[in-house]
Amino acid sequence: MTVQLNKFDNATELNAAFAEEIAQKLTQGIEQNGAASLLVSGGNTPKALFSVLKYKDLDWSKVTIALVDDRWVTLDDPASNETMVRQNLLQENAAAAHFIGMKTSHENAFDAVSTVTTNMQNIQMPFDVVILGMGEDGHTASIFPCCAQLDEGLTTKDLILATEPTTAPHQRMTFSKAALLNSKQLYLHLVGENKEAVLNQVRESNDERKAPINAFLNQDKVPMTIMLATSK
Ligand SMILES: O=C1O[C@H](COP(=O)(O)O)[C@@H](O)[C@H](O)[C@H]1O
Predict the structure, then answer these.
(1) Tens digit of pLDDT per residue, the chain (232 long)?
(2) What structural domains does the chain harbor?
(3) Which residues line ligand 1 (CB under 6 A)?
(4) Cα of 175 to ligand 1 centre, how many Å?
């Protein structure tokens, strides 16, 4: 399937257009099924998008939001993706959305997989919108290249797995490749010249084991749009 590239001069323009497109897809989902689902990424890139998206006028009470991945840290830790979503997206109009977090009270992420799987089975699938990010090592969600769980993340039919990257801190919880491809629309959200350079490198390598984002760029199941702004 062709990957569509939407390139913007700056993040402000990107986030305005992207928030509008996401709102339209969620509204369409609600019209068609009475409810809609949105999976978002963590890290820093989504914060500015969320600051626009949270004001969109749609029936957020019919939207379920979850993360594509989280770091296995407590909610008071600045590395928590859940806390970032609570502070930046689940505010204003979007405060009415239903959020399902990944972090449980289990000390070890690997012990929490079945609980998180059960919780996530409550989300309407296929997901209406999935927004992926990409790390500078080509990881996406928490499917990392340098990780004992790389093959599992790329091949399991399970919804959820725990991972422990060797090149980044914290155990993680993540949706699998198969789960993320059970969606109506995938986006890859990238801001900055570095991310553009990494994107060009990973597309050249064309190897999902070296750069797991390739698993989503090279597939023929779900439409994929790259939303890229070269400057912040
Ligand atoms: O660790 C993670 O990193 C990626 C990329 O984050 P960014 O700060 O470079 O935007 C993110 O997509 C993922 O959700 C997160 O857990």
Answers:
(1) 789 999 999 999 999 999 999 999 999 999 999 999 999 999 999 999 999 999 999 999 999 999 999 999 999 999 999 999 999 999 999 999 999 999 999 999 999 999 999 999 999 999 999 999 999 999 999 999 989 999 999 999 999 999 999 999 999 999 999 999 999 999 999 999 999 999 999 999 989 999 999 999 999 999 999 999 998 8
(2) 3-231 (3.40.50.1360)
(3) 41-45, 69, 71, 81, 133, 135, 142
(4) 14
| Cα–Cα distance measured from residue 7 to residue 221, given in angstroms and rounded to the nearest whole number | 23
| Cβ neighbourhood burial of 151 (10 Å; 0-12, 13-18, 19+) | exposed
Q: Which of 18, 142, 227 to mutate to test the pocket of ligand 1 (most atoms within 8 A of CB)?
A: 142
User: Cβ(208)–Cβ(168) under 8 Å?
Assistant: no
ipTM surpasses 0.90: yes
- Ligand 1: which residue has its CA nearest to atom 14? 42
Amino acid at 183: S
